[in-house]
Amino acid sequence: MPSLKDVAELAGVGVGTVSRVINSHPNVKVNTREKVNAAIKQLNYIPNEVARNFKMQKSKMVALLLPSIWHPFFSELAYYIEEELDQEGYKLMLCNSGGRPDKELNYLDMLNQNKVAGIIGITYNDIEDKVNTDIPIISIDRHFGKDITCVTSDNYRGGRIAVNELIKAGAESVAYLGITSSVYSEVELRKKGFIEEANDQQVEYLIYEENDAVFDVDTYFENFFKLNEQHDVSGIFANTDLLAAQYIDKAKQYGIRIPEDVKVIGYDGIQQNKLFHPILSTIRQPVEEMARISVKLLLRKVEGEKLEEKIYRIPVLYRDGETT
Fold first, then answer.
1. Which of 75, 222, 255, 259 is deepest in the core (most CB within 10 A)?
2. Rounded distance, CA 313 to CA 316, Å?
3. Domains of the chain
């Protein structure tokens, strides 16, 4: 890890000058300040006083990096993370990236420079090389090759449960509807579980996916319904509840009745209010448990403890609704 001396040598100045630039001292020439800042950026240097604050655990702030705060799953997750942090005497800094990798990197740069105790993050972008593991981090759904612990639901088991429940409800052929990201995450295991259960049950199945970078809801379902004309699917497992709800909405336009003609199961369990209809059958993620475990694991890392597991998978439950 680069030191203050390394920055000084690269910039061609003394260590004291670097220190004055870092502390925004006014008595530094503009061109000298620019050379020092360029050296800091080139070396990806984190000031020692910040690093010391991390080690001494002076900060009582934890950052939560989310791809979207409006999504009900992420909102619920944030609620329980904040509640658990509050009980532990910590505060939450919310970083809403909108799923943009450039915005995520900007947040990570900011968090590297600020006095946060740790980070809980969800990202589906390829930013692994930019993640600084000097700060304690817990990842949700995504596991990196680096020393970053992942907390997730049992996505594989959820995929198997979905196929089994669709067959029990009377589906004779099933389809998996998915939206994928550019990097691997635990979400992919929903499809793997779906395929293996369908094979074990000897039921015909169809896989239909598009990347989230090109996803357009109208085009997505127009293409799927054309493909489905050759398969006559009677059971749908969508890899999120929102995608399941979008399928149900589009199916009406094609005269498809839910659940009479097609049974539908989603994944997440975000629909809590019984005033909404139809109530979606879904694989319910244990959001509260995932949130609280993520906080507890992060704070153990903040204390310098080495965690015994790389991935913590939390069991899921099937919640029957009106779409099966």
1. 259
2. 9
3. 4-45 (1.10.260.40), 54-153+288-314 (3.40.50.2300), 155-285 (3.40.50.2300)
